User: Fold Thioesterase family protein from Phytoactinopolyspora halotolerans.
Amino acid sequence: MTLTIASRFRGPSSSGNGGYVSGSLAEHVDAAVVTVTLRRPPPLDVTLDVAPADDGGVRLLHDGELVAEAVPGDDAPLSAVPAVSQSDASAAAAEYPGLRAHPFPECFVCGPSRAPGDGMRLFPGRLGDGRTACVWVPSADVTDESGAVPARFVWAALDCPGGWSAPIEGRPMVLGRLTAEVRATPDVGAECVVMGQMLGAEGRKTWTATTVYAEDGQVVGRAYATWITVDA
Assistant:
């Protein structure tokens, strides 16, 4: 099996968005909850090998070097971040700090430099209590041949809103590990609320939680993430 991360799905300018890459790899693991650990920046526009592992997971390799690994996960660390209304999430997004300063402005998920129909343009604004909120309306450009939104895009939505619950604009971080459960995928045009929450930090590591809610308030997906501070 192979996998190619197109440059469209970048986070930093020269590597894949962590949530999107994690979700793409998680599709190869037969488990409701999957943990993906990113070992190095996922390269773009090259063929990567997806190799089965003895633990029921898979490994992502580039020229024999480990890029990431995905294994069946544990839902113990997963909890739903309390939601706000769609109107409150939209109001928070208008104050998104990434509109003023962003370490990765071309990020597929949260980059303000990406045009509608190219990036997801999730703009998580801080609520002042350790949470972020924004609205995600899936568009046709993130659908497969059947017109459905693949789970990997829910994984992508579960990425950046957690990171922005920390002061990432002044302390750049990248995703190190993501444990996620995707219960459903939203329809095109659905107005989903995405919540992030800061859980703690120590040294170069930061821990966050994220939840995607459907229009009816049901949980679409939830995640627990470990972030690693990097040089600006």
Q: What stands out?
A: Residues 2-72 form a domain with the Thiol Ester Dehydrase; Chain A fold (CATH 3.10.129.10). Residues 18-26 form the longest helix (9 residues). The two ends are 35 Å apart (CA to CA).
